[in-house]
Amino acid sequence: GKGGDRGGGKFGGDRGRNRGGGRGGRPGGRGGSGMKGGRKVIIEPHQRLEGIFVARGKEDALVTKNMVPGESVYGEKRISVDDENGSKIEYRIWNPFRSKLGASILGGIENIHIKPGSKVLYLGAASGTTIS
């Protein structure tokens, strides 16, 4: 019939699927932090910035303690680690592609002028994420 079977051939076939990928980012969909459950992760304090930690595992990640364990506000990834007393501590993983503060820390910023106990007024934006 007219139009053929719309399949295969040199120029057609997938009818819009796989048309140059998605909207940027990394291939493979969501996730990919390398901090999957059950893997050995070591949490170390950040060298310069109090209250920020580095999770060392398959891939390193910036993390902060989750003040409300079990809760995820923005769908961020979390990891739980046993402390020396055997109790679990939950950390939120910072995605530097969604956090300007996280990106600046990875970029080597000297001081963020925020530490545990600081009072911060966050005037939020319409999208993106904030610190824990």
UniProtKB/TrEMBL annotation:
Cellular compartments annotated: Nucleus, Nucleolus
Feature: compositional bias, Gly residues: 19-36
Compositional bias per record (Basic and acidic residues), positions renumbered to this chain: 1-17
Matches recorded under SMART domains: Fibrillarin (SM01206)
Coiled coil: none
Positions of region (Disordered): 1-40
One Gene Ontology cellular component: Cajal body
One example GO MF annotation: histone H2AQ104 methyltransferase activity
Reactions it catalyzes: L-glutaminyl-[histone H2A] + S-adenosyl-L-methionine = N(5)-methyl-L-glutaminyl-[histone H2A] + S-adenosyl-L-homocysteine + H(+)
Alphabetic keyword roster: Methyltransferase, Nucleus, Ribonucleoprotein, RNA-binding, rRNA processing, S-adenosyl-L-methionine, Transferase
Classification via SUPFAM superfamilies: S-adenosyl-L-methionine-dependent methyltransferases
GO BP terms in the entry: box C/D sno(s)RNA 3'-end processing
Domain of life where this protein originates: Eukaryota
Protein family per UniProt: Belongs to the methyltransferase superfamily. Fibrillarin family.
PANTHER family according to UniProt: FIBRILLARIN (PTHR10335:SF17), RRNA 2-O-METHYLTRANSFERASE FIBRILLARIN (PTHR10335)
Name used for this protein in its record: rRNA 2'-O-methyltransferase fibrillarin
